[in-house]
Specification:
By secondary structure, the chain is α+β, with helices and mostly antiparallel strands. Helix content is about 30%, strand content about 25%. It binds one RNA strand through strand 1, strand 2 and helix 2.
RNA sequence: GGGGCGGUAGCUCAGUUUGGUUAGAGCGCCUGCCUGUCACGCAGGAGGUCGCGAGUUCGACUCUCGUCCGCCCCGCCA
């Protein structure tokens, strides 16, 4: 039994066809315009805004009560829908043709003046928005984004359900695993000195579900990583986690790119041509200097190692002697950059760890470069020709070992594109990067670490390399990239105990340690593990990119700050001594 | 862990370079007037530990040191 007149309609739906009907609306005071006699209130709910009118001649009690209305008061109003007088319709508002002439007003709740306005006319400091998140969430931008996000959940569920996938929840309290990100730990009260970890991903569980015969698994699931944050990284985030049995790479990729294309079609009306372009890791690095290339602009790289390997320029020649590469790219029209601008670019490149940056400017006077006296006119001209440069262009060259040279060029390429405004923001460039290396060498730990994760299967042609040259072995791993952002990654997994043990060994984990940490998984593999593989897609990141938000915080209801604090509820917080004692924990 | 930027009225900011009278503006808020506004209008008013703590100085929003908080980047994030 309601203690107030319940709404019969929402604030977003009344139109001219409703004129003459009596309605009750519930909502918040968005703005108030008190003209002394007549009072206009914009009443707001999540469906929209309807102007309600208090006229002393049409309801003097309601009008008197309306005098005290202020921003964000919660109201129930009853009145008749009327056409606005000639010339006073509001074309910018969907409900702009009508008013609700109020006969009865009930104030359901009063509100203090909010610390910032609900309209988004002025930028508001983010820490304030986070402290008063419940108010920020009333604002149009977050309302829109969270509704977009809701639709993406629904599309996801429908997409997978219609393809026979089973949604299964996996534990949030799980076993801490080595490698990868730092775990969030949860102390056990019952077992002194033992800890659960929050999942970095449900990786082991979904593989075990494959052993159990659930050959198509999906879950929209929270994951937790205790690492430092960025604009696109939060300590807890959501993934669309997928695993399938009896499949290879192409099956997973078709499924995942189909989902992304469905998002674009249904949420934005955009057709994404499928299948998506594929780049091997090597191609991506050697063309764009990134394992998540942004292909919305050119500035593709060109290898000139062979042209300069025996030149008189010792920086290049010595590097090539040591097995390094020399490569670079052409910036069309870049010759007009000033000396000052070039100095900034050189400094930027050095800041990335480069020894230096060699550049040629092709001006009216011809090819100009500070290193012409070392390379010689002919080689300079040959480089420009080989790279396809023209008059007015700038050529940028970096010389270093393969990975470092291309990584530096990749950052420089992005920087130049931003500086020169070359990025076409209207494009939606999706692609796959495949054939990642199995391992990368960790200088810190003096051993190989898994580039994707340690359950990733090696490329069938590279099994031998695991023994002879593990650093060269390719993995059956793949990432999906949108406009230079990694939005998902997966692999075909190892389903063979022997091979899995071998990979553990290469990662410096002996049989005993492997048994202790992953005995349950290896145990499952004894009882008939099917070939399987999967992928995880970054749900928040996809919402962020599709809604054009700059930060992942803008697509989450209750995000944390860059120092992982929640400003609204002030988590993390200190706890009672009693709680600590029960958990056998002392703070040092 | 490192680098950069920021913290002044409820909000958005100016003032800090070169220390010096009473720290300003717009919006919001409060009061009054106003019967078709929609950025309503008009008149008046209130509102400040200049993030915090030391120091230098006759005097600190301003200079120095420390510290806290926010944002961005590097490291890190299989």
């Amino acid at each position: 039994m309601a203690s107030f007149p319940k709404r019969t309609r929402t604030c977003g739906e009344l139109r001219a066809q409703d004129i003459g009907t009596t309605v009750t609306l519930n909502g918040w005071v968005d703005t108030r315009r008190d003209l002394g006699g007549v009072i206009f209130i914009d009443l707001r709910d999540r469906y929209g805004i309807t102007q309600i009118v208090f006229n002393p001649q049409r309801g003097s009690d309601a009008h008197a009560a309306a005098k005290e209305l202020r921003s964000e008061f919660v109201l129930s109003v009853t009145g008749t829908v009327e056409r606005r007088p000639e010339g006073t319709a509001h074309p910018g508002l969907e409900t702009g043709e009508i008013d609700v002439m109020v006969s009865a007003l009930m104030i359901l709740n009063r509100a203090e003046t909010p610390p910032f306005p609900m309209d988004e006319s002025a930028e508001t400091a983010e820490d304030l928005r986070l402290k008063y998140r419940y108010l920020d969430l009333r604002r149009p931008s977050l309302q829109r984004t969270l509704m977009f996000r809701h639709r993406m959940y629904q599309i996801t569920h429908r997409y997978f359900d219609s393809r026979g996938f089973i949604e299964i929840e996996t534990p949030v309290l799980m076993k801490s695993t080595p490698e990868g990100a730092r775990d969030y730990l949860v102390p056990s009260r019952v077992h002194r000195g033992r800890f659960y970890a929050l999942p970095q991903s449900p990786q082991t569980y979904k593989q075990i579900l494959m052993v159990s015969g659930f050959d198509k698994y999906v879950q929209i699931v929270k994951c937790f990583r205790d690492e430092d944050l960025r604009a696109d990284r939060q300590p807890e985030f959501t993934q669309i986690d997928i695993e399938m049995s009896f499949v290879d790479e192409i099956d997973i990729q078709n499924l995942a790119e189909g989902l992304i294309a469905t998002f674009f079609k249904e949420l934005k009306g955009i057709d994404i041509p499928l299948p998506l372009p594929r780049f091997t890791y090597r191609e991506a690095m050697e063309t764009y200097g990134s394992d998540k290339p942004d292909t919305r602009f050119g500035l593709k790289f060109c290898d000139i190692t062979d042209l300069v390997g025996r030149s008189g320029f010792k920086v290049f020649a010595d590097n090539v002697q040591r097995g390094g590469v020399v490569a670079g790219f052409v910036v069309p029209g870049g010759a007009s950059l000033t000396r000052n601008q070039m100095d900034t670019i050189v400094d930027f490149t050095k800041g990335l760890g480069a020894g230096g940056l060699v550049y040629f400017k092709w001006t009216e006077q011809g090819l100009e470069t500070a290193v012409e006296k070392f390379l010689g006119k002919d080689i300079v001209a040959a480089i420009a020709a080989h790279m396809g440069a023209a008059k007015g262009d700038l050529i940028l060259l970096v010389s270093d070992v393969w990975l470092k040279a291309y990584t530096i060029l990749g950052s420089l390429r992005l920087e130049m594109a931003r500086r020169l405004n070359l990025i076409d923001e209207t494009r939606n460039d999706l692609l796959w990067v495949t054939e990642f290396p199995m391992f990368e060498y960790s200088e810190e730990e003096k051993r190989f670490v898994a580039m994707h994760h340690m359950f990733t299967a090696p490329h069938p042609d590279d099994i031998e390399l695991l023994t002879t040259d593990p650093g060269k072995a390719r993995a059956r791993a793949y990432d999906i990239v949108l406009n230079g952002n990694e939005i998902g990654g997966g692999s075909i997994r190892i389903h063979d105990r022997e091979l899995q043990s071998k990979v553990f060994g290469l990662l410096g984990m002996g049989p005993e340690e492997a048994e202790k940490k992953f005995g349950f998984l290896l145990g499952a593999f004894r009882y008939g593990a099917p070939p399987h593989g999967g992928i995880a897609l970054g749900f928040d990141r996809i919402v962020m990119l599709m809604t054009g938000m700059k930060s992942i915080r803008d697509v989450m209801a209750f995000p944390k700050t860059a120092s992982a604090m929640s400003l609204m509820d002030e988590a993390p917080s200190e706890v009672e001594d009693k709680q600590l004692r029960e958990l056998h924990i002392r703070v040092v």
